[in-house]
Amino acid sequence: MLKILEPKRHEILFFYQVLYSAIGELAALDKETTLLDICCGTGTIGLSLASSCGQVIGIEMVSSAAKDAQENAKLNNLSETCEFFSGKAEDFLEPVLLRCKYKKIVAVVDPPRAGLHQRVIQTLRKCDKIQRLVYAACDANASLRSFGDLARAASKNYKGKPFMPTKIVPVDMFPDSPHFELVVLFER
Fold first, then answer.
1. Would you call 138 a catalytic residue per the annotation?
2. Superfamily of domain 31-187
3. Which of 39, 52, 70, 165 is most buried, by the most CB atoms less than 10 A from its CB?
4. pLDDT in tens, 100-130
């Protein structure tokens, strides 16, 4: 069981384990893969999948959450293969991509309700080493713009081969409510 700094009730942990399991299954990681965890929060997605890949790199805008992610890596003896950066993904994604040790990169994005910043999508599309992208959406309707921009045909604004949605997994994180997480696998 992954140790984390933020205490959660047992029931909530179960739902997160289900979510992270779905993300890990779709990511199809191996030891020759860098997992790029965008909007990583306290690092729980990347850390929970760290044993399945060779490297985890996370980016988080909230500096205290990025610091917690680094502490969570230490708590779980994962500091050698996991590193976390504080800053806006649209500003840090390109330099962080240069730190990827492996030719195969799988991106996992768990953005806020508004979806991904346009520059993040453009950078992801330009990086041909990324063939798989797993998108965790807490609000599917709000994420439609990001979904469309990932999948649209190449253009002046969206260079690189598009990511096409190939699998969708709804995860009921909030029983007895209409809310759910939507996990979407995009592939090139």
1. yes
2. Vaccinia Virus protein VP39 (3.40.50.150)
3. 39
4. 999 999 999 999 877 899 999 999 999 999 9
